[in-house]
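Good day; I would like, with your permission, to put a structural problem before you. A protein sequence and the structure tokens that stand for its backbone fold form the material at issue. Thank you for your consideration; the sequence and its tokens are set out here:
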Amino acid sequence: MAPRSLSHVMLLLGGAVAVLGSVLFFVWKAYFSDGSGRRRRPWWEAELSPYVGELDPDERQVLVLGLDGAGKSTILHCLSGHGAKERMAPTWGFNSVRLPTESFQMDLLEVGGSQNLRFYWKEFLSQADVLVFVVDSADRLRLPCARQELHMLLAEDPDLPVVVVANKQDKSEALSVAQLQQELDLQAFGQREFFLLPASIPPAGPGSSPPSIHHVWTLLLDLLSQA
């Protein structure tokens, strides 16, 4: 039987990965690598090629991390063109989205931000082309925790492009982008290049994504085209 796509396998695993983060890491490694460091062609390319011709095997991987409640799932939902929702259920394990662009397939994997899953975050970095780290700008009490987790990730891979999304800028208690830059102590990494983007995602109905998400999308396209 042909191997399933990453998103299909994740759906089958379901909530188990909320406890067994190592299983999720195994899936990420197994379905995006052939063991030699090269990325695998998706299983469906061979099966569909007689019907649709040669498919573009070029893929880019985006890893989306951040503390629970930061708004990762909402951002993924908007990036996929579905607009904002009034309520978004917490991610107990993962979310995955595959988005076609003119030049490549963009695969986004969000790993939940609960404490039991953060331990495994760093294991996913080797397969990522870009890291998106989402921060709740209004959650001042947990900013030290977000800073610590981000710094640990940055220390693991000094060359990985990083986009920090300062989410929930529409809230009255939110820190500004400049304040977040200080609170996250990004200057501690010297000349390393960061991208810190503001985001506010009020529920605006299906198919409506705010301009801030368009800016994130445009930046991802630019970074991934260089990967």
